[in-house]
Amino acid sequence: MNTYDVVVIGAGVIGSSVAFHLQKLGAKSVLVLDRATIGAGTTSQSSGILRTHYSVKENVELARKSWAVFNDFAAYLGDDEASCGIVKSGYMIVAADGDKVEPLRESLEQQKSQGIPLELLSAQQAHELMPIARFDDAALIGFEPEAGFADAYLTATSFARAARRGGVTIRENVTVNRLLIENGRVRGVSTSAGDFAASMVVSTQNIWTPELAGWTGATLPVSPERHAVLALECEGAAYTYTMPVFKDLASPGMLYCRSYGGNQMLVSEGTAGEKLDTADIEQGDISMDYVVEVGAQVAERFPAYEAAGIASSWTGVYDVTPDWNPVLGALPGIEGLVVGYGFSGHGFKLSPTVGKVLAQAALGLPTDVSLTPYSVERFATGALLTGKYGVGAVS
Amino acid sequence: MSTLVIADHDGARLRAATLNTIGAARQLNAPVHVLVAGHDARGAADAASRIEGVDRVVLVDASHLADGLAENVAAQVLMLAPSHTHVLFPATASGKNVAPRVAAKLDASQISDVIAIHGADTFDRPIYAGNAIATVQCDDAIKVLTIRTTAFDAAPLSDACAPVDTKEAVAGTLRARFVRREMAVSERPELTSARIVVSGGRGMGSAENFALLDPLAQKLGAAVGASRAAVDAGFAPNDWQVGQTGKIVAPQLYIAVGISGAIQHLAGMKDAKVIVAVNKDAEAPIFSVADYGLVGDLFEAVPQLVKGL
Amino acid sequence: MKVMAAVKRVVDYNVKVRVKADGSGVEMTNVKMSMNPFDEIAVEAATRLKEGGHASEVIAVTCGPAQTTETLRTALAIGADRGVLIQTDAELQPLAVAKLLKAAVEREQPRLVILGKQAIDDDAGQTGQLLAALLDWPQATFASHIEMGADTATVTREVDGGLEVIQVVLPAIVTTDLRLNEPRYVTLPNIMKAKKKPIDTLSPADLGVDPSPRLKTLKVVEPAARKAGVRVSDVAALVDKLKNEAKVI
C-alpha cells in the first residue's frame, strides 16, 4: 500500500509515542519511517531522567501528564508485558547561596501551584534521603517524590510494539529523501523505498531536523550538541535505587546524577556541550582532563567520590534550540505538517504527552496542552521559553 | 611455487581444519605439501596422504613435538619453509599460536584469517570484527597465511596416495614445557567444525535453563554455543562463546535461542549458511540477520522444536 | 623484575565502523579511540604482578601518533609506572610493531612482556608471537591465568576444546585472553597521578627500525549483505522451512 493517512518520520521515543497515540486516537492507516532502527538515534543515548521540575510552567504540565503514563505504563499501553524500566526514586534539586536560589524558589512555588507534590527539605532531611551527599552549603533543597528514571530505548520499543499491535506500519532502514509538497500542501514523502502518499506528515527528526528545513524552506533553528556521561563506582558509597535523582545547581556544570545499575553513579553536566558540525550520534572522545574536572565537581557534593573509579563513559547528543525547549505543532505556511523536535536533552520525560498532543494536532483534534507557546514562530517574535537557570536542560 | 600446509592433528587423525586449509592451498594452483609434526603421528600423516590435491606429506615425528609447543613446531616448519612460496596454517588456536613465530623468522608479513585467495599474492581478510573486508597484497618471497577454515571447502578424499617422507626433527626448546591439558569432555561435535550449532543467549535465564538446549542439540547432532552475555552471566562455559572474541563458526545451520544479536556476537556467526532466531522480542537485532525468525517464548518453542524435528 | 605491557590505540569497541565510499579504508576522522580491550587486560595483569610483589616496575609501551599519549596515560592510570611512546605517523603493521617493541625491550630489559592477544581493529593476532620469535623468547599465548615462579611463568592457555597449561622460562612473552582478568576502573586520583608519571618519546629512527608497512591494502569493502529473512509464525512452519526450503535438516 502506498497511501496513508499519516506518515511519521523518525521512530525514536517521540516518534513511536506519536505513532502509538495516532492509532489510539483512531487513525487507521499510519506509517512510521526510520533511516535506522527504532530508538537507535539519540533515544538510546538518553539518561532517562523523569521529573516534573521545570522553571517553564508549560513544561511542568507536559512532564506531569507524562509522569502519570510512565507510572502506569503497562495499563496505558494495554499490554501486560510492556515496561518502561521505571525506577521511582524521586528527584532532589539543590541550590547554594547565589544566583540560582531565587529561580529555584520560584520554580518550586510554580510547581506547587500546579499541584505537583513536593517538599522543601532541611539539610538533615536531604542527608537522610541521600547519605552519600553533603548539604552544608545548601541554601534551598527541593524534593519531588513522583519522579525517578526509566529506560528510553525500552519505552520507544514498547510504544512501537503497541503501535504495531494497533495496526501501525513501522518500516526501519528507510531513508526519507524529501517531502512531496504541492501548492503549499503536503502530498507525501519520497523515500529509499519509494513514494508514499499522505496528507499529513509528522516529523520527529531530532538532530536531523535540518533535513526537514531543507525540504520545506522553513527556518527551524536546531543545533546538535554532544554531552559526556560518566558512570562512577565508589566502594562504600554506592548510589542505590532508593536514592533520588539529583540536580546540583551549586556545581559549576549544574550536574545531574542518578543511580546506575543500583550501585554506580551516572553523572553528566547540565550546561552547554560540544557543538557538532553535523548531525552525528557516534561516540565522541571524552578526555581524561574532562573526567577529572567533572569528578572534582562530584567530589564537592559526594566527598567519598574523590576516589571513585570510572566504570564507563559515553556521549549523547541533544537537539538544542535557542531557548532549550522543543518546537511543537503545525508548521506555519505548509498544510499537513506537524513537527516535534528540539527537545534539547529533556525530551524523553515528555515523550508520552508530546506524542499525544502531536497526534492530536495531526488529526485535527484539540490538544491536551496548548502548543502555542511551543510554536516555531517564537524565535522570530522573541516569545522564548527561556528557563530561569540559564543555558541547560532544566529549562 | 609450492605451498606447505601445516597440519592440525591429534596424531591419529587430521583435524577437520586441516582439510579446509588444504582446500585453500589448492586454490594457489601449485604443489601442496603437508607437514605433519608430532609424536606417534603416522596415522595423521597417512590420512594427509589420502587427501585430494596433496602432492607430498612430510612427517616429522619426535617426542618433543607431542604437545604442539609453538617454539618446537615453528622450528620444524622453518626447516621446510624455505623451499616453498606459501606456508599455510589453519586459523585454529594452534595455527594462530605458531604461525607468527614462523613469519618473524622468515621476515614475512603474515596475513591472518584469510577468507579468499585471488592469485598468489592477493588475499581477503576480515577486519573490525568482520565489519569490513580488506584485500591485501603481499610481496614477500615466502608468504605466511593463517586460513579461516570456515571460508574454504574441505578438500575431499582422494583415491590416490601421496608419498610420505619422514624427516628428522629439529631439536626442541629448553625454555618452554608442556604441563597438562584440561580438555572439556563432550560427546558433542566441536563447535568450530560442527555442521549445526545451537546457541543460547542471556534469554536462557540461567545455567540450569541452558540445559534445555541439550535435547535440541542431541536431536540435531549439533554443537552448543553461547553468546558473550550468557557466558558473562555464568550460564555457559567460556569455550562455548561464539563471537568476535570467542569462536568464529560458519555451520550449515545456526540456531540462536534467546540471543539479542549484539554486533560482537554476529561477527562470530554471520557466515552460517542458514540462521534461525528464536526470541520473544520482535525487534531484537538478531532478526535482521536471521533467515528464519520466530518471535516467541523460547521455553515453549525449544521443546516444540525437539518434538517436531 | 621489570614487566612491560604493550598497548595499542584503536577505534573504540562500541563504534560501528563505516567503510569509506571510495574503498580506501575505514572512516577514522573524529572517531572515538580507546585502548585495545585486550591491552587493558595486559596492563591490569602487569599491575597485579607488581602489587603481588612479582614485579618492581611496570612499563607501558605503545607505537603510534602523538595522540597515543592519551592511551599511555590510561595505562599509567591503571598502574603502569612509566610510559614509552614510539612516535610515528606511519601505518603500523604487526611485523614493524614487533621490531619496534624488540628494540624497546632491548633498551628496557624487562623479564616479561605482556600483550593483548589481538587488536580489535586489524584482528591480526600476531604481535606477541612475532616479538617472541624476534627475541628468541618462549611464548604463552591466550593466557587465562598466570602463576609466577622465581624464573618461570606457568600459564593456563585457552585453546580449542579446553585449556592447556605450559611453563615458560623467563624472559618470556605472554598474550592475554579475555578471561585473564577484569581490568580495574581507573580512579580519579590515579588519573591525576598519571599526569605526573614520565612518558619517554622515541622515534623509530632512534631505535634503528623502519616502520613502513609492507602489506599493501588494495581495497576495503563492506561484507556482502545477507538476503533478507522471513518471520515464521510457529515452530511447525519453521521445521517445514528448514526441511523443505533450506534443506539443512
Structural shape of chain C? globular
Average of pLDDT of chain B: 93
- The percent range for strand residues of chain B is 25-35%
- Name the poorly predicted regions of chain B: none
The overall strand count of chain B is 16
Number of helices of chain B: 9
Question: Which percent range fits the helix content of chain B?
Answer: 25-40%
SSE order of chain C, as H and E? EEEHEHEHEHEEEEEHEEEH
Describe the structure.
The complex is a heterotrimer of chains A (395), B (309) and C (249). Helices cover 26% and strands 27% of the residues of chain A. Chain A has 395 residues and is an alpha+beta fold. In chain A, the strands form three sheets. In chain A, strands 4, 5, 6, 12, 13, 14, 15, 16 and 17 form a nine-stranded mixed sheet that branches. In chain A, strands 1, 2, 8, 9, 10, 11, 18 and 19 form an eight-stranded mixed sheet that branches. The mean pLDDT of chain A is 95. In chain B, the strands form three sheets. In chain B, strands 5-9-4-1-2-3-10 form a seven-stranded parallel sheet, sandwiched between helices. In chain B, strands 13-12-14-15-16 form a five-stranded parallel sheet. With 309 residues, chain B is of the alpha/beta class. Chain B is elongated, with a radius of gyration of 21 Å. The relative contact order of chain B is 0.12. Chain B contains nine helices and 16 strands. The model of chain B has no long low-confidence stretch (mean pLDDT 93). In chain B, a hairpin with a 4-residue loop joins β7 (122-127) and β8 (132-137). The longest helix of chain C has 15 residues, at 37-51. Chain C contains six helices and 14 strands. The radius of gyration of chain C is 21 Å and the shape is globular. In chain C, the strands form two sheets. In chain C, strands 9-8-7-10-6-1-4-5-12 form a nine-stranded mixed sheet, sandwiched between helices. A two-stranded antiparallel sheet of chain C has the order 2-3. By secondary structure, chain C is an alpha/beta fold. In chain C, β8 (152-159) and β9 (162-169) form a beta hairpin. Chains B and C meet through α3, α4, β5, β7 and β8 of B and α3, α4, β7, β8 and β9 of C.
